[in-house]
Amino acid sequence: SIDSNLHNAPLRLPPLQSESESSARNKPEFRFISPIQAILMMPFASSDPLDNDSEPFVESDPTGRYGRYDELLGSGSVKKVYRAFDQEEGIEVAWNQVKLRCFVDDPAMIERLFSEVRLLKSLNNDNIIKLYKVWRDEKNSILNFITEICTSGNLREYRKKHRHVSVRALKKWSKQILKGLVYLHTHKPCIIHRDLNCSNVFVNGNIGQVKIGDLGLAAIVGENHIAHSVLGTPEFMAPELYNENYTETVDIYAYGLCVLELVSLEIPYSECDSIPKIVKRVSSGIKPEALDKVSDGEAKTFIMKCIGNPMARPSAAELLRDPFFDGIDDDDEQEENNDHI
């Protein structure tokens, strides 16, 4: 299958964290990630534009449409992300550069990379980070790709910054994540995200919009919807994921824990201080302690539906019809209620 070779030996790298996120949590967040994850981690940026009197671009794409600034938004082991500008649409974008020389001894990896990037470029949904353009710099052995940019960081940082948020707002964010999952899971072929958590859901805070990013671990599966590689962020990995035989319902489990984090303001299984302890609790079916801190009965019931037995978990489309979202419209501009979780 398309994910069978790439992820046999996933890398274990520390996540990129902002200063605010790092200081907000005493223990590190462990992640099992593949080279594709390191490559495709989606960026975010502040909304402050550059103000240069001279020609601002360091380089342009072959068509001249996209210009790259020198401002670095983030970097990983094989990738750097810069602020850039789309001169045709008049919008800021993110310019991603991947060092292909890192994979010079693995041509299959490079081919897999191009295949998945081409697929991601074909995705078009309001709640999925958009990939606009991809090209290869043969001379410098660099893969360049242009992605959408979000102004308010990831949802984990955003929620910590805004601690007093209405129930209605949390539901609206949660509903938008589900809409993104419906798109991925009903795509032909089906796409399983496999690493959904609040740190890779991104926010445009000025319009209350959230988008799923970090599709680097996504599995493209056939008609049986079954994948096998053990990948993801341990705190958000469904128990069956460790058994290497699972479907898109692992995303529903992770989604339920995202909702739990939004409601409780606590990363699931933060009571554990190591990966083995997390794996043991998850594999044993022990729920995160954060669940005991959820006082809202409706929210707790909804979360339990998501993290229950995989055969009993609703699909993303079914969850959109759950009573939890009654009266919630993503485009509703009515005043939000004053009830807070």
What's the gist of this structure?
GO terms for molecular function: ATP binding; protein serine/threonine kinase activity. By secondary structure, this protein is an alpha+beta fold.
Can you characterise this structure?
The protein is α+β, with helices and mostly antiparallel strands and 341 residues long. It folds into two domains: 11-147, Phosphorylase Kinase, domain 1; 155-325, Orthogonal Bundle (Transferase(Phosphotransferase), domain 1), CATH 1.10.510.10. Helices cover 27% and strands 18% of the residues. The chain has nine helices and twelve strands. The strands form four sheets. The protein has a six-stranded antiparallel β-sheet with strand order 3-4-5-6-8-7. A two-stranded antiparallel sheet has the order 1-2. The longest helix is centred in the middle third of the chain and has 19 residues, at 167-185. The protein is globular and about 55 Å long. It catalyses: L-threonyl-[protein] + ATP = O-phospho-L-threonyl-[protein] + ADP + H(+); L-seryl-[protein] + ATP = O-phospho-L-seryl-[protein] + ADP + H(+).
